[in-house]
Design a protein that fits this description.
Elements (H helix, E strand, L loop, with lengths): L1 E2 L2 H12 L6 E6 L6 H11 L14 E5 L5 E6 L6 H6 L2 H5 L4 E6 L13 E7 L5 E4 L6
Parallel strand pairs: 2-5, 2-6, 4-5
Antiparallel strand pairs: 1-7, 3-4, 6-7
């Protein structure tokens, strides 16, 4: 689907979030500025996160709670230095926690650690204000 604005991307993310349940690992793939963080923010807000959602660019992982008590993890692996840093941040445990929905930006930096059944979303620039968002079918 094509998004023509940040508001449209937010609506797509919120609608997608309604179909996801724990445990889930969702990878957000795309270039810098493609809209991954915008998608993640709207996804998390739609699941009931009330506090300010910031990018985990330097912390690697930010944890939140959904309105129904599910842990929500937002990861940004762009600055991940090595596997040891991932282990120290607890990323492997979070990715395999049965009560967590994880959103992972820059997943290719740690692809070997992702569960095989992760859900991949591709976001790409299609002009100044347009993004193509490729959403897979969610298995039920």
């Amino acid at each position: 689907m094509i998004s023509h604005s940040e508001q449209e991307t937010s609506k797509i993310a919120a609608d997608f979030a309604k179909a996801v349940s724990a445990p889930s690992v969702i990878t957000l793939c795309g270039d810098l500025g493609a809209g991954k963080s915008c998608f993640a923010r709207a996804f998390l807000q739609s699941l009931g996160v009330k506090e300010t959602i910031t990018s985990p660019t330097f912390s690697l992982v930010n944890l939140y709670q959904s309105t129904d008590g599910i842990q929500l993890a937002h990861m940004d692996l762009y600055r991940l230095e090595d596997d040891e840093e991932a282990y120290q941040a607890g990323i492997e445990e979070i990715l395999h926690d049965p009560n967590t929905i994880s959103l992972v930006e820059w997943p290719e930096r740690l692809s070997w650690m992702l569960p095989k059944d992760h859900i991949q979303i591709n976001i790409s620039h299609q002009g100044d204000n347009q993004r193509q968002i490729e959403l897979p079918e969610i298995p039920t």
